[in-house]
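Input (structure):
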C-alpha cells in the first residue's frame, strides 16, 4: 500500500509567514554556500541534493488529510482537513466513475474543514462513502454545510454520498483492505484506524492524549491494537512541557509518542498533528530531542525508525 500525507498540521491551517520564510531561506543559503565552496563544480540541483533535509522541504501548513492506496487501486482518505483541497484536485484529474472511501477520525474542525473544497464532491460521477464511529455523522455534515456558513448545503452536493456507521472496536473490509477501529483518548472522542493489506499494517492515530499518572496502564491497555504496526502516524503535537500545561486538550508529546511506539514494537513512527504555534525550526528541535530520547531508551537494536510528518511525504509498505 502507498500512504501519502496531504496535511500534517494540527488545529488550524498555518501558512508559513514572511518572517519565518526569510529566516529559513537565509539558513538554506548559508548551507548551500558551504556546499558550493567545497565543490564549485556542482549544479544548483546537485547542491540542493546535498543540503540538509531541514532546508529541502517545509513541514507544511495544511490540516490533517492522509491517503492510503491499495494494490487494487482502492483509495482510503483519512480525514478531510484543509489538505483535502489539494488531494481533491489530484483525484478529479482522473476521468470516469470513481469511488472514494473517507474514514473520519472525528469532526473537530481541523479534520473536516476541507470538505467544502474537495473537488470530487462536485462530480456527479463520483460516489463518496463516509465511514465513522459517530452515529449522527449525517447531521454533523449538514451543520458543516449550513447555508449560513457555506454556499452549498449537504443536500445539494452533486456526488452520491453514502454514510456507513461503525462501532469502535469493529472491523470491516474495503477492497483488499481489512480495517480495524479503536477509540482514542480525546475530548469528544476520536477513532484510530488500523489498515491491513496482506501481511502489512498501517495505523493512523491522530488526536490522542497519552499522558499523566495512568500512562503506563494506558500503554498496556492499548497494546493489542497498536502492536507491531509496520507504520504508524501518531499525534505528537507538543513538547513535554506543553503536554503538562495542556493536560486534557487531547494531544501527545513527541517523546511520549516514541515511548508508546517502543512499547508497542511499532517499526516506523511518523510524528504528526504539528502545533500551529511552532515554526519549522521548533518542530525540528522537538524532533531532535525525540530522536535523542529514542537513542537513550532502548533502541540499541534499532527496531524503531522515527520521522517527522511533512506535507507531500509518501511511504510504501
Ligand atoms: Zn486535530
Ligand atoms: Zn481533535
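Output (sequence):
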Amino acid at each position: 500500500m502507498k500512504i501519502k500525507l496531504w496535511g500534517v498540521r494540527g488545529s488550524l491551517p498555518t501558512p508559513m509567514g514572511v518572517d519565518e520564510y526569510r529566516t529559513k531561506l537565509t539558513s538554506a543559503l548559508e548551507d548551500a554556500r558551504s556546499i558550493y565552496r567545497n565543490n564549485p563544480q556542482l549544479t544548483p540541483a546537485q547542491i540542493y541534493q546535498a543540503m540538509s533535509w531541514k532546508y529541502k522541504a517545509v513541514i507544511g501548513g495544511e490540516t490533517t488529510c492522509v491517503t492510503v492506496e491499495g494494490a487494487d487501486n482502492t483509495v482510503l482518505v483519512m480525514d478531510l482537513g484543509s489538505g483535502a483541497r489539494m488531494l481533491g484536485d489530484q483525484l478529479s484529474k482522473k476521468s470516469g466513475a470513481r469511488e472514494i472511501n473517507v474514514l473520519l477520525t472525528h469532526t473537530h474542525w481541523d479534520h473536516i474543514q476541507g470538505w467544502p473544497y474537495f473537488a470530487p464532491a462536485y462530480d456527479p460521477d463520483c460516489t463518496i462513502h463516509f465511514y465513522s464511529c459517530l452515529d449522527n455523522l449525517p447531521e454533523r455534515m449538514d451543520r458543516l454545510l449550513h447555508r449560513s456558513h457555506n454556499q452549498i448545503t449537504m443536500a445539494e452536493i452533486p456526488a452520491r454520498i453514502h454514510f456507513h456507521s461503525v462501532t469502535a472496536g469493529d472491523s470491516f473490509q474495503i477492497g483488499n483492505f481489512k480495517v480495524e477501529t479503536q477509540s482514542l483518548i480525546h475530548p469528544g472522542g476520536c477513532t484510530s484506524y488500523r489498515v491491513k493489506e496482506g501481511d502489512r499494517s498501517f495505523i493512523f492515530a491522530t488526536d490522542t492524549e497519552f499522558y499523566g499518572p495512568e500512562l503506563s496502564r494506558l500503554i498496556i491497555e492499548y497494546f493489542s491494537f497498536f502492536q507491531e504496526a509496520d507504520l504508524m502516524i501518531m499525534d505528537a503535537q507538543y513538547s513535554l512541557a506543553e503536554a503538562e500545561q495542556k493536560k486534557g486538550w487531547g494531544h501527545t508529546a513527541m517523546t511520549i509518542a516514541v515511548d508508546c511506539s517502543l512499547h508497542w514494537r511499532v517499526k516506523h513512527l511518523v510524528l504528526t498533528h504539528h502545533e500551529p504555534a511552532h515554526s519549522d525550526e521548533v518542530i525540528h528541535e522537538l524532533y531532535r530531542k525525540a530522536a535523542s530520547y529514542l537513542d537513550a531508551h532502548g533502541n540499541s537494536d534499532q527496531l524503531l525508525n522515527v520521522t517527522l510528518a511533512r506535507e507531500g511525504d509518501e511511504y510504501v509498505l
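Notes: The chain has two domains: 2-15+58-316, 18-55. The chain has a mean pLDDT of 96.
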